[in-house]
Amino acid sequence: MTPGRRFSAAAETYENFAGVQNRVAIRLLELAQNEMPRGGPSRILEIGCGTGVLTRLLLETFPASRLLALDLSPGMICAARKRIANPLDTLGWVVGDAGDLPVHSVFDAVFSSSVLHWADSPQAAMREIARSLNPGGVAALAVMTKGTLAELHAVRRRIAPDNLPSADLPSPDLLRDAIGDAGLVIRKEAPVEILVTYPSAHSLLNALHDQGLTGGRFSTSGRPLSRTQLRNLIAAYDRDYSGPEGVQATYRILCLIAEKSSPCRCPGDLW
């Protein structure tokens, strides 16, 4: 199943388990607010709006801005439109891929939260973000990084060492390099670690499934775990990572605020 179809299938259940994404969106907005022009950016592009977790916050924080919300999944956009009222008609929607943005205008700010780790090429996504920004524009990005769900991956390596995911989440260094290569300058960065407790390992896996997070290259090798492997994984997770309130799972995120440099005007340019 393609990512777009996978997330569309999870659109109705996504926000039931989106506590991590909500916390990350709030933190990203806190970091970005002081980097925005007075009165807020005139035009904002949000990449990976999903069901509208960050979209709602952007509308509340920058009520005078025009916002274009983009997502790869038509189902996610449909769910977001049902949830978000916009009586001032300052919000638009578009289906598209971060690596090939279907936008030709430029924006004062680009926001993306808990999405860009899914990009087939972080380098291509950062180039597209740079292309879509005005000179002096700001990109506010929060990306899940390597080390997220470390407990689950550790158990899987023990239970099914010959059936591991085909890819890993991007490292902070990879993201920094991709941003720099795109011509953006990092102004702020903040690592965020969130520890979440679930009633059981089975509940954790269900939550990941209902967010559309299973089935991609970060969770499969192209073939599913056998029933025996899955049963053993759940038992080992419950045994090794249980606390008084349930099992724990770690999420690691890097928040980055980057700017597109304005062209330098040398003395000779004035003539």
Topology:
Blueprint lengths: L2 H7 L9 H15 L9 E5 L5 H9 L4 E6 L2 H10 L7 E5 L11 E7 L8 H10 L1 E12 L5 H10 L12 H10 L2 E15 L2 H10 L16 H14 L1 E2 L2 E15 L11
Helix pairs in contact: 2-3, 5-7, 6-9
Structure description:
This protein is α/β, with parallel strands linked by helices and 271 residues long. It has a domain at 3-147 and 168-195 and 251-264: Rossmann fold. Helices cover 35% and strands 25% of the residues. Strands 1, 2, 3, 4, 5, 6, 7 and 8 form an 8-stranded mixed beta sheet that branches. Helix 4 (74-83) links the parallel strand 2 and strand 3. The longest helix has 15 residues, at 19-33.
What is the N-to-C order of secondary-structure elements (H for helix, E for strand)? HHEHEHEEHEHHEHHEE
Reported CATH architecture of the domain at 3-147 and 168-195 and 251-264: 3-Layer(aba) Sandwich
CATH topology of the domain at 3-147 and 168-195 and 251-264: Rossmann fold
The assigned structural class equals: alpha/beta
Tell me how many strands there are: 8
Largest sheet: 8 strands, mixed
Query: Low-confidence spans: pLDDT under 50, at least 5 residues?
Result: 1-17, 265-271
Q: What is the residue-mean pLDDT, rounded to a whole number?
A: 87
Q: Which strand-content bin applies to the residues?
A: 15-25%
Helix content: 25-40%
Helix count, DSSP H or I runs of 4 or more residues = 9
What is the CATH class name of the domain at 3-147 and 168-195 and 251-264?
Alpha Beta
General shape? globular
